[in-house]
């Protein structure tokens, strides 16, 4: 069995990978967009806003929560979800750094004849 050798990568690389994995489903992106569009936490039925079953939405919420991108607090029988803005600011900086580095010195592109 092959094991991931995450220790061979920097903490920044590992954090970027965790965040990218947490966002690697369109339903999770839609949930984040929904939460970002609200000025308060959502304690209503998020599943009513998406074309998915409630159990599926719950699974995606758990993935986002496990990554720390959202928080959920229990108030009686309802859970109030909102974005973890501190982590989102960190993610913004990490991804901006990656994207800046990726396009700073392009080795080849559509106009180049690099043969790849």
Automatic annotation (TrEMBL):
Span of domain HTH arsR-type: 8-106
Lineage: superkingdom: Bacteria
Keywords of the record: DNA-binding, Transcription, Transcription regulation
Cell membrane in keyword set: no
Keyword DNA-binding: yes
Stored PROSITE patterns: HTH_ARSR_2
Stored InterPro entries: ArsR-like_HTH, HTH_ArsR_DNA-bd_dom, HTH_MetalResp_TranReg, WH-like_DNA-bd_sf, WH_DNA-bd_sf
Classification via NCBIfam families: HTH_metalloreg
UniProt name for this protein: Metalloregulator ArsR/SmtB family transcription factor
Organism whose genome encodes this protein: Hymenobacter saemangeumensis
Taxonomic placement: Bacteria, Pseudomonadati, Bacteroidota, Cytophagia, Cytophagales
